[in-house]
Amino acid sequence: MRAAVLHETGQDKLEVLDDIEAVGFGPGKVKIRVRATGLCHSDVSAMNGVLPQPAPFVPGHEGAGEIIDVGDGVGGLTVGQRVLVCWLPACGACPACKRGQTQLCLAGFMNAGTPNFKRPGGDVFGFAGTGTFAEEVVVDAGCAVPIPDDVPFDIAALIGCGVTTGLGSAINTADVAAGSSVAVIGCGGVGISAIQGARLKGAAQIVAVDPVASRREAALKFGATEAVSPDGLADAKQRITAGEGFDYVFEVVGKSATARTAYETTRRGGTLVVVGAGAMDDMLQLNMFELFFDEKRILPSMYGGGDVLASYERAIALWRAGRIDLESLITHRVPLAEINEALDQMRTGSALRTCIEL
C-alpha cells in the first residue's frame, strides 16, 4: 500500500512509497482504510524534531475511514463501520482516567515506540502511534471511534484533532465567560476553532492575531470581531481594554515568545490558555513577583482539556445545528501523491486545513 514517509528527523519533504505494510494486527486491534486525513501543525513539528518521534515514520494523526478488519476480543466495532481516529484514547483504568481527566491518559503514548508499519528496508513508525498518511493503519480498538453516517470523512478527520482541540480550549479549559474579551494568537485550524468556541460561549470581543493576511480575513468569517497582525496587538489591547489586557488570551503557536506576548496581553486576574505544542527546550520565563502579583491563571489545554469522546459528540451536534462551520476550515484538498504541496501550504500559512484524500 501507499504511505508518505519521513526517513530522517529534520527533513522537510516526505516520500510517497508503495511498499509499505501496516503491521501489528491481532487481538484488541482494528485495521482502518483511511479515506481522509488532515495536515496538523503537530505533524510538521514531529518532522522537524520539535515533538519527539522515532524515525522513519509516517506522519498524520487526524484521520477518518472505515474498518476493514477486527481483531479478537474487540466489541462494538464491525467491518465496514465508519470511524475517526482518536490518537489519544483513554484506557479507563489509570489514575488520570479515574479522576475524569481522560485527556491526560498516557496509554496511547505507550504505542509510540512500537512500529506501525514495515517495508523491505525495515520498520516504520506511525506518528503518535497512528500514522494516517497511509492508505491503511492498524490501531488499538480504542482509537477507532464510530461516526454517524451523515458525517463526511473529511469533517470527521478534523474533529479527530484540530476542531476538538480548539473548541475544547475555549469551552472546557477556559470556560469563556459571556461578554468577555478574547485574543487568539495563531489562526490556523486550531486557532480558528478556538475562535468559534469563544463565539459560542458569548465572548463580546474576539481579536484574531496572525501574520498571514488570508488567515486574518478568514478569522473574521468564523466569528472574530477584528483581526490584526502581531504588531497590531498592542494597539488592539489599548483600544479594546483601555490597556488593561484581555480577559482570555489563547496561545496557539507553541513558542515561548508568543506565550510571553500572550501573558503580557492578558489582564491581571485573567486567563492565558496555552494550546500550541512546543519544544521541550523552549523555556517560558516568568519572574516570581509578576507570577504572584498579577494573579494570572495559566492553563495548558491538552487535546481540548476534556473527555474527547464527549467532545467529539458535541462537535458533531454543533456542526449539525449549524452553530460551527467545519466545511470552510478545509481550504485545500490534495491527493496523497501531492502531500509535499500540502506541507508548503501549511508552512506559508495559505491553508487553514489541508485535507489529504486517500
Descriptive report:
This protein is an alpha/beta fold. Helix content is about 30%, strand content about 25%. The protein has helices at about 40-45, 95-100, 155-160, 160-175, 190-200, 215-220, 235-240, 255-265, 290-295, 310-320, 340-350; strands at about 5, 15, 20, 30-40, 55-60, 60-70, 80-85, 115-120, 120-125, 135-140, 145, 180-185, 205-210, 225-230, 245-250, 265-275, 295-300, 330-335, 355. The strands form four sheets. Strands 4, 6, 7, 10, 11, 18 and 19 form a seven-stranded mixed beta sheet that branches. Strands 14-13-12-15-16-17 form a six-stranded parallel beta sheet, sandwiched between helices. α4 (about 160-175) runs parallel beside α5 and α4 packs across α10 (about 310-320). It is globular.
Structural class: alpha/beta
- End-to-end Cα distance, whole Å, is 11 Å
Q: Low-confidence segments, ≥5 residues, pLDDT <50?
A: none
Q: Please, what is the average pLDDT?
A: 95
What is the topology?
Layout: E1 3-5, E2 15-17, E3 21-22, E4 29-38, H1 41-47, E5 57-58, E6 62-70, E7 82-85, H2 95-98, E8 117-119, E9 122-126, E10 136-140, E11 144-146, H3 153-159, H4 162-173, E12 181-185, H5 189-200, E13 205-209, H6 213-221, E14 226-228, H7 233-241, E15 246-251, H8 256-265, E16 266-274, H9 288-294, E17 297-300, H10 308-320, E18 330-335, H11 339-348, E19 353-357
Parallel strand pairs: 5-9, 12-13, 12-15, 13-14, 15-16, 16-17, 18-19
Antiparallel strand pairs: 1-2, 3-8, 4-6, 4-10, 4-19, 6-7, 7-11, 8-9
Helix pairs in contact: 4-5, 4-10
